[in-house]
Amino acid sequence: MLTDNKIKGLKPTEKRYSLSAGEGLSIDVMPTGRKSWVLEYTALGKRKRKKLGEYPAVSLKQARELATKIKDNAGLTPITVSELIHEWVELYSKQWTSEKYKYTVIYRLTYITNDFRDMAVADVSRAMVSKAVSQMVAQGTYETAKRSLRLLSQVFNYAIAHEYAQNNPCTLVDNIIPTHTVQNMATLSADEMTDFWQTIRKTPTIGLAPVALSLANYLAVRPSELCKATWDEFDLDKGVWIIPAYRMKTRLEHAVPLASQPLKILKELHGSRIDDGFVFKHHSNPAKSMPIESVLAVIKRAGFGGRMTTHGFRSLFSTVANDSGLWRADVIERQLAHTKKDVRHVYNRAEYWDERVALMSWWADIVAGWQA
């Protein structure tokens, strides 16, 4: 709570900063030490900012009285969700170093508030937020739902602090998002991956299973998609892997950009191939593909059984890419070949291609660091 004593004690810094006094009123502290009152409010649907004088010439009490009078005379309209998001982003985006992250934040907040963004902040109910999250869950975008809800909760906490709202309608809504943990899909954290790969390298293995494991980390594809890959699916000159529809879980053709590191591995494998069939062959029957269990056995032999799986690389990819704030959720989801049912008819295997190429190159650099 801002008080006169606290205001008197405010020290200047190299940059201007503000402290809220509630209800849109704040005090700006300049590098020169000057302190000015500022009121932000919405009138006739437009966001306005008005200076109310300097402190101590205008006391805290006087500033509050002036603010009340101005808002009363302006025919104050309640701040909407859209205006709140704009205000929150404008304030906090100054701390973000990436424009891509800012875009992602705005995208997620716009997406989750689609049905109530024009409503007054104070009128948004938990049921409305729950409905929005439920729609995202129904589409299978669990991570997007989780991260969008987390952002919206931060926005409403800001609203409470500035007395735009009394409650946070996001509270407890996360309980309707499934944990989406599936048996045999355990994954390690990014911080554990260097140790994981150091241990893998020290573990005695036979055949190409460790190479398949390495590519699974680089490419973030489903284990079956990798183990049953054939050489005719790859264009090593263009650096792309086209997985045919019949091998995809979605039954839709999928394109995978090949960054320099996995491309080098594949070219080495191609140079030593015995035929143009499976990239990874069964150890006793070259006419068959390597079983997924052979790759998983490498993990178990290294002592990570129950803690990591081949499918876990996909979860790790999603987590690291989303947490970085550098990539749009739609781009990450498309690279993972997660497709919403209602857009299957317009699915394009190369959608967001340039962004996906950049994403997989960025990811490959991270994986290369772990595997070094």
Features:
372 residues; alpha+beta; Double Stranded RNA Binding Domain; DNA polymerase, domain 1; hpI Integrase, Chain A; 3 domains; four-stranded antiparallel sheet; three-stranded antiparallel sheet; 44% helix; elongated
Report on the structure:
It is built from 14 helices and seven strands. With 372 residues, it is an alpha+beta fold. The longest helix has 20 residues, at 142-161. It has helices at residues 4-8, 60-73, 81-92, 99-112, 126-138, 142-161, 193-202, 209-219, 223-227, 260-271, 292-301, 312-324, 329-335, 353-371, and strands at 17-22, 25-29, 35-43, 46-55, 234-235, 240-243, 254-257. A hairpin with a 2-residue loop joins strand 3 (35-43) and strand 4 (46-55). The strands form two sheets. A four-stranded antiparallel sheet has the order 1-2-3-4, covered by helices on one side. 44% of the residues lie in helices and 11% in strands. It folds into three domains: 4-73, Integrase, DNA-binding domain (Double Stranded RNA Binding Domain), CATH 3.30.160.390; 81-176, Tyrosine recombinase, N-terminal domain (DNA polymerase, domain 1); 190-371, Intergrase catalytic core (hpI Integrase, Chain A, Orthogonal Bundle), CATH 1.10.443.10. Helix 4 packs across helix 6, helix 5 packs antiparallel against helix 6 and helix 8 crosses helix 14. The model is unreliable at 341-347 (pLDDT under 50). This is Integrase.
